[in-house]
Write the structure tokens for this entry.
Amino acid sequence: MKRMYVVTLFITLFWISAANAQKVRVGILALDQPYITEIAGPLDVYHHVPADKIEVVLISDTASELKTYEGMPFRAHYTIQNAPRLDVLVVPSGFGSLDRDLKNRPVVEWVKKAASEAKFVTSHCEGAFLLAESGALNGKNVTTFPSDRPALARRFPAVKVQDQRVVVDGNVVTSAGGLASYEGSLWVVGQLFGEAEAKRIGEALVFGSSNMTAAHSPAAH
């Protein structure tokens, strides 16, 4: 009887482990004072995928409680020291995106490593600057917040900046931020789980047809 219990427990744990291994893991980098929209957009979209298919986690450079730029407290699931390997890397923007975060070498090195391992590498708004600093955008067509596009092009001449809401180049997806953060995330959902799933989520989020079109067919150059 005891042997049967042990065997049953082993099989149960095996299937649980196998099920978790099949999940797509999305990691959203959340440093101090991130802009809430750039976190909430991807978080909202990916959390609409059934839980047995996806795991969405926040990753930071500290285990301490942080606050968004708007003052909402939060705590990340992992730090860059113990974060698991990601299928989708999400780099949103925040108060330090144009200066402080770019000087944080442990974060830059972690982004470089995570981007090299991920199936999809994404940024929203000024998050493109941190991806560019890591070298993950070299030679890529990308976009960022409209008024920041000239600065991104000047600072990172190896990056090809486009005047678009959402740009896809290979496995790199960048958006201008705001509503476009939802659109870029929906495009990734469509690639991973199918267009029907992306459409279902878009309808659940009351997307207009033009936003769904932008999400599914972003401009690539």
